[in-house]
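Technical note accompanying the year-one report. For the benefit of new consortium partners, we illustrate the data format agreed upon in the data management plan: each record pairs a sequence with a structure-token string. No post-processing was applied to the example shown here.
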Amino acid sequence: MSMLQDMLWNPLAVEAALPSINIRKNDQEFQVVLAVPGYDASQLEMTWEDKLLDIVGQRAKEGTEDDGWSYMRREIRTPGFHYRVQLPQATDESAIAAELKDGLLTIRVPLIAKKTISIKIETAKPVSLTESTN
């Protein structure tokens, strides 16, 4: 059965084809963590444009391996994936960092601290409507 047929007959197959993802943030940082076991850095690509983070993973196409084996059954798929993550507006784009360790791709996006500005409110002096004559 092809991957498309698997997805039509088994909706859980779609979920199995995509890596698991965690998205979290605190006051200093926004993080995207993907489980990508078996991928190396050369198979992962990230781009950033207009607060949209694209994460693409691509492995060798099935059947292109020349390992000397003839497969009677092949269920381990390497379809690749594509995630798009909308990031917060208050991000420091110049300091985005990514790390691939133990099958986890962690992307760290520093957040710009919110500024609170105090505004002094002046009170107007009351205006007298009566004129005094000298």
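Partners are asked to follow this layout when depositing records. The chain has a mean pLDDT of 82.
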